[in-house]
From TrEMBL:
Keyword terms: ATP-binding, Cell inner membrane, Cell membrane, Coiled coil, Kinase, Membrane, Nucleotide-binding, Transferase, Transmembrane, Transmembrane helix, Tyrosine-protein kinase
A GO term from the CC aspect: plasma membrane
GO function terms (MF aspect): non-membrane spanning protein tyrosine kinase activity
Entry's localization field: Cell inner membrane
Protein's membrane topology: Multi-pass membrane protein
Top-rank taxon, per record: Bacteria
Region (Disordered): 1-20
Protein name: non-specific protein-tyrosine kinase
């Protein structure tokens, strides 16, 4: 809200600028970014340099104090060519050469169990390098660099919270100590595959080069021994299991074989080889007889039907004779034909009523009757034969059905038998396979070989591998430089003050009156008012001249003569600038008077080398006339009214009508009436003076005054009715200011050849 109020004031005086075309030149943007970064680094070079020196120095000191370690390396090659003595699938198969298998072997070499074996073999429990309990207590100065060692254990326990201590038995303490030694051993061990080869590199670090070589070689030997032990153990376990399994399979094969034979005997099956059984043979023969009987029955029925049909036909007898092929019927048929011929002859010869013809006809009838009787007997015989064939067929069918039922039952029994036989065969096969496998393993156990071999034993290292002091210092240098830059960036982002009038103008809309360079260290004992006169060609004096010119251009008609110098808080250089500016104006021939309106601190008269016996207080209280308190600066002719020696309330005095009359009178008599005001945020008199002045120059300490504070002070002046002509930055480090990327950066530093500082 304050910013908005401040910005509204200047916007009423000037029109908004018309935005021009926007340029997207990447090279210009990159160059600007580089300049900004370089400037930031230069501005904080002291911080960055301090961090680099401290970080690198500490790292170098630590590197010098570190115990050198020697690394010995053993190379172990995993065999990928299998030399099998016997052609069978091994129980303990060789290692796979896949990456997963190599990583598994690496894990075995780094496992606590394997490390414990090496520790026991070499007796590292009694080595102080691995057993911290055997090391002497550290008392040198390097030990105390660790802050943790400076804090008593009781304090650490209190910080962690009171926890009951666990009482350990001697065995548990020994186990914990053993675990600590194993962990220390593993920390110094490095195991890794060599690229895409079958070689595993085993590195071990130790303070003693001979010890490093001994441990690395021992690890390789123990690894091969461990492989053989595991193979023998696996073979032993497999042999024991096979013995138990063989016994079970032998008993199972015997039981299944006996069950199959017993069932075959009970079921009446001839054999177990798939040969034809007795019932099957009988069934085949009976089936053949049944088929023949059925054929004969069908033939007899066909003949009977044909004979019965022919017996009813006109040619029945002759046809039946031809069909049956009976000699009797054929003979009777010939006799019948002969009698019919005789009857025909007799009829022709004797006539129709002749006795001979009658006798022949009677004989023919008898003969035909005999034929019919014979045919009837033949038909009856055929019918009997049909019934006989039917009975025989039915009997055969009954027997066939019975045998078929028996065969079906026998087939069911045969299925069960085959199942039992397969079980017996399977048991026998498994028994024989297990027996063969047992014999193979028993023979292979004697010729087991490890799946790896040592291709390079560890030699005694002559040079330490750790610490790499150069690398430590280099990394510390890079890390500290990075940290320094980060701290510089953090410090840059955390800056609360304004670094350029351009920033202030962008934030508030108040115009810039320029910057006032800080006086060099060699001139710190000289007041700015004296320095401006003694060094008229200096950058500081030029800043005052620039302020004077700017105010003249802002007031071409000369009506605005009363100028107030104000600030937000004390210590921003307001009084020093006011005194220096007043001397510059007086030295330029302008009739100038300066009033010390800060009745609380009363610090302006020492800057001018004048006295404070009578002053503004005495004039406002009526004790003295203005002419009686005016002092003249002997160096420039500047007139000066001190604050006076009174102690009444300043706000009552400065807000009185006499103060208004005094300012009005002085404005008529002088070209410049300069008021030195107390800070507006500290006391209220500054706002009263802002209402009396024609123009107010707002002073901001470069980089020190917080932005919120400066904007709040400016808001107080504007709300009091003051006419803020612009902002002036004081005590500017022109060298650091030149390192920023602001439009006015390097204003005095870039042209320092023009000034005589």
């Amino acid at each position: 809200m304050a910013t908005q109020d401040i910005q509204d004031q200047p916007q009423r005086r000037q029109s908004a600028p018309v935005p021009g075309p926007v340029s997207f030149d990447l090279s210009t943007a990159a160059a600007s970014a580089v300049r900004r970064t370089t400037g930031m680094l230069l501005r904080h070079k002291l911080l960055i340099g301090t961090v680099i020196v401290l970080g690198t120095g500490i790292a170098g000191l630590v590197a010098l104090r570190m115990t050198p370690l020697y690394t010995a390396q053993t190379l172990i090659m995993v065999e990928h060519r299998k030399n099998q003595v016997m052609n069978y699938q091994e129980v303990v198969s060789g290692l796979s050469t896949e990456l997963g298998a190599l990583q598994s072997e690496v894990a075995i070499l780094k496992s606590p169990a394997f490390a414990e074996k090496v520790v026991d073999k070499l007796g590292l429990m009694n080595d102080p390098e691995f057993n911290a309990a055997l090391r002497p207590e550290q008392t040198n100065w390097f030990y105390y660099l660790n802050p943790k060692n400076l804090v008593p254990d009781s304090w650490w326990n209190s910080a962690r919270g009171d926890r009951p201590e666990i009482a350990l038995s001697p065995e548990e303490k020994t186990a914990n100590e053993r675990t600590s030694v194993v962990n220390s051993f593993i920390e110094n061990l490095a195991v890794r595959p060599q690229g895409r080869s079958y070689v595993i590199a085993v590195d071990f670090d130790s303070e003693d080069p001979r010890k490093a070589s001994l441990i690395a070689n021992t690890i390789g030997e123990m690894y091969l021994v461990d492989q053989l032990d595991e193979k023998f153990k696996a073979a032993k376990r497999a042999t024991a299991w096979l013995e138990e399994r063989i016994t079970e399979l032998r008993r199972e094969a015997k039981m299944t074989g006996e069950a199959a034979e017993k069932y075959r005997a009970e079921s009446g099956l001839t054999n177990a080889n798939g040969e034809t059984t007795l019932i099957a043979q009988q069934l085949a023969e009976l089936n053949t007889s049944y088929v023949l009987a059925r054929t004969k029955r069908q033939e007899a029925e066909a003949k009977l039907r044909e004979v019965s049909t022919l017996a009813q036909s006109p040619r029945g007898v002759s046809a039946i004779g031809d069909v049956l092929g009976s000699p009797l019927i054929q003979a009777l048929r010939q006799q019948e034909v002969e009698l019919q011929r005789k009857i025909a002859d007799a009829a022709n010869k004797y006539g129709a009523r002749h006795p001979t013809l009658t006798a022949l006809q009677s004989e023919l009838r008898d003969l035909q009757g005999q034929i019919k009787a014979d045919v009837g007997r033949i038909v009856q015989n055929l019918s009997n034969e049909v019934e006989l064939e039917r009975g025989r067929e039915a009997a055969l069918k009954t027997n066939l059905d019975q045998l078929q039922a028996q065969r079906n039952q026998q087939q069911e029994s045969n299925v069960t038998l085959r199942t039992l036989e397969r079980d017996a065969e399977t048991s026998q096969t498994m028994y024989e396979a297990m027996l063969t496998r047992f014999q193979e393993i028993a023979g292979q156990t004697e010729i087991q070989q490890p799946d790896a071999r040592i291709v390079s034993e560890a030699a005694i290292p002559l040079n330490p591998s750790q610490p790499n002091k150069k690398m430590i210092v280099l990394l510390a240098l890079v890390a500290s430089a990075t940290l320094g830059v980060l701290l510089a960036m953090l410090r840059e982002q955390s800056e609360r003050g304004f670094r350029s009038p351009h920033q202030f103008e962008s934030a508030t809309g108040v115009r810039s009156l320029g910057i006032v360079p800080a006086i060099g260290r060699r001139r710190r004992g000289t007041s700015p008012a004296d320095y401006a006169i003694e060094k008229p060609m200096s950058a500081f004096a030029e800043a005052m001249q620039n302020l004077r010119t700017t105010l003249l251009l802002a007031n071409p008609d000369g009506h605005q003569r009363v100028i107030l110098f104000s600030s937000s808080v004390p210590g921003e250089g307001k009084s020093s600038i006011a005194a220096a500016f007043a001397r510059i104006c007086a030295n330029a021939g302008q009739k100038t008077i300066i009033l010390d309106c800060d009745m609380r601190r009363k610090g302006l008269h020492p800057m001018l080398g004048l006295e404070n016996r009578h002053g503004l207080y005495e004039v406002l209280s009526g004790e003295c006339a203005p002419n009686e308190v005016i002092q003249t600066d002997p160096r420039t002719g500047l007139h000066f009214i001190a604050s006076g020696r009174g102690s009444a309330l300043p706000q009552d005095m400065l807000g009185s009508s006499r103060m208004h009359q005094l300012i009005s009178r002085l404005a008529l008599e002088y070209d410049r009436v300069i008021l030195d005001s107390p800070p507006v945020l500290a006391v209220s008199e500054g706002k009263l003076l802002a209402a009396l002045a024609d123009q107010t120059v707002f002073i901001v300490h470069w980089g020190k005054t917080k932005r919120e504070t400066a904007m709040a002070g400016l808001k107080e002046i504007v709300e009091a009715g003051g006419e803020v002509v612009g902002v002036l930055f004081s005590q500017v480090d022109i060298r650091r200011h030149a390192q920023y990327e602001f439009p006015d950066s390097g204003r005095y530093h870039g042209y320092r050849r023009y000034y005589a500082n």
